[in-house]
Amino acid sequence: MNKFLIKIRPWENSCIAESRLSFQKGDILIGETEDGIESAIVEQAADSKEVLPGSQADFEQRKFKIIRKANLRDLNAIREFRKKEAEAFEICRCEVKKSNLPMKVVNCCYSFDGGSITFAFIAEGRVDFRDLVKNLSRTFQRSIKLHQIGARDEVRNEGGYGICGRELCCIRFKGDLPSISSEMAKAQQIIRRGSERISGICGRLMCCLAYEADQYQKVLEKMPSVGSEVKIKGDTGIVKETNALTGELKVEFSGGSIAKIKMDDLI
């Protein structure tokens, strides 16, 4: 059984689909999901060397049973719905503005059969959009679904590049986005740089903080904590700072002097 990494909607995580047939990157597939028949694009073979590090469990949140590769009629239908999505997106934005709802619509997708439209939006909290759904259902005469996504999902939907010059991590890593905490920045001793310097274009902490957080934490666990007492060649001092990269401690001695000490110098 061949496995493929596919994406159904731009703002969603990629998921893994299986088939005895072989498909190439960029192929459009028609498949069955829990929401009905949908189309999806093949991003890569799941066993390809292109797949970035991560567990397959990160991709299996959404089920997609492949029915066939999209034929010419399927592609024409999808193309027509894509044209309609731009109009539907603007109509929804106008309705949101008219209703003065605290939400931002970022994308929309027609289902493959055209029977429903899903709108993706971001908001700080919960939004009562029941009247919005009624108005949109009346306008389009279709089933309307609203899906709230996070700030990082919005950036994944739009694309872009980070300050490192590479494609954003939320796009390169196609599975579930890891939870990034200030503890990761603290372990890497960069939290003092300020949130604006360790935040991505989504306004949240950079995904790359997760790359080496575990290694830093393991190193710090072997080092004396700040405020603890240490002994160095017959003298004692208090640890003021630790540096996981260099393995050095900044120690204040009883006489008031401060010096950088290597871990190897501790008694």
Could you tell me the mean pLDDT? 85
With helices defined by DSSP (H or I, 4 residues minimum), what is the helix count?
A: 6
CATH topology of the largest domain: GMP Synthetase, Chain A, domain 3
CATH architectural group of the largest domain: 2-Layer Sandwich
Q: Element order, helices and strands?
A: EEEEEHEEHEHHHHEEEE
Shape: elongated
Describe the strand arrangement of the main beta sheet, using strand numbers. Answer: 2-1-4-3-5
Q: Termini distance?
A: 59 Å
How many domains is the backbone divided into? 4
Stretches with pLDDT under 50, minimum 5 residues: 51-58
Please tally the β strands and state the result.
12
CATH superfamily of the largest domain: K homology (KH) domain
Biggest sheet features: 5 strands, antiparallel
Helix content: 10-25%
CATH class of the largest domain: Alpha Beta
Kindly estimate the percentage of residues that lie in beta strands according to DSSP: 25-35%
Helix/strand-derived category reads alpha+beta
Cα radius of gyration in angstroms:
26 Å
